[in-house]
Amino acid sequence: MARSGAGEARGRPGGGGDAVNPASHRRRRRLERAGHTLPELVVSLLLAGIIGAAVIALFASSTAALRQLVVRSEHAETRRTVSALLLEELSVGVVGRDWRLDGDRAVRLRAFRGYARVCAWTPASSVLTVAWRGQRAPDPGRDSVLVLRAEDAAWTAADLAWVGGAPDPDACGPLPGERVAGWRVSGPDPSGALLLRFFEQGRYSLEDGAFRYRQGTAGRQPLTPDVVGRGSRLHPWLDPAGELLGVEVELHLGDGASVVDRWRLSGDPAGRAW
Predict the structure, then answer these.
(1) pLDDT value of residue 5
(2) 19-52 pLDDT, tens per residue?
């Protein structure tokens, strides 16, 4: 009887025999199911690599497209700036008198910034009462003038010595956009002056990777992004007789001269004032 009791004890849970604890067995099976086999890990890593490569490729493609968009925008901006500024500046000047080529990459010019109608002359102060209009206010420190006199009907260069209040403001009936002021010019007698044009000495160039402007002796200021190629040139545009008519612009843009533009810009060959 004692042997039978011992066998029963070994067969019951918690006994000293070889019986398996059901709770422990279920826990072990759950842990086995929670893990991953080696093939599952390999497949997961492979999928993660494919997704990562696709994301990187998409990012690289988007970056390249954005870079191309920026380059095209800079090229278009440079072409517009070069053509618009040179056309505006050269078209209001006279070839040979108001502008000339400076080598094959630059043009020196009188950069006209406005005009003034002479309304009255005050001999006591040597001041002209004028109604002026322009891109900016006249500045005696940087501007000179061309004076059109009634007696000789020709333009004469002079210095703009002073700008201030008009001694005879009622003499002018200003047109829309004009302002009345007093100007003093040094040089030829201005008593017979009819019209004045004020300008600064300037230089446009295609140098050091950009389209640049220099006012007087100041430093060169870039007007465009650094996309102008080294092959860019300003060529003289001549008529059949060899007379200078204008400028032929050869504009290379981007690395390796990927874009080349050529167009002709002319000054006023007839010598008109406007």
Answers:
(1) 47
(2) 556 666 666 665 555 556 777 777 777 787 888 7
Q: What is the largest CA-CA distance in the chain?
A: 153
b/e string for 22-37 if b means 16 or more Cβ within 10 A?
eeeeeeeeeeeeeeee
Would the pTM count as exceeding 0.85?
A: no
Beta strands in 25-178 (DSSP E): 99-101, 106-122, 127-134, 144-149, 155-164
4 pLDDT above the threshold of 70: no
Q: Phi and psi (nearest 5°) for 33?
A: -70, -30
Element (H, E) at 196: strand 193-207
Every domain of the chain and the residues it spans:
87-266
User: CB–CB of 160/140 below 8 Å?
Assistant: yes
Distance CA 233, CA 225 (A): 17
Q: Is residue 254 within 8 Å of residue 228, measured between CB atoms?
A: no
CB 266 within 8 A of CB 94: no
Average pLDDT of span 40-68 = 77
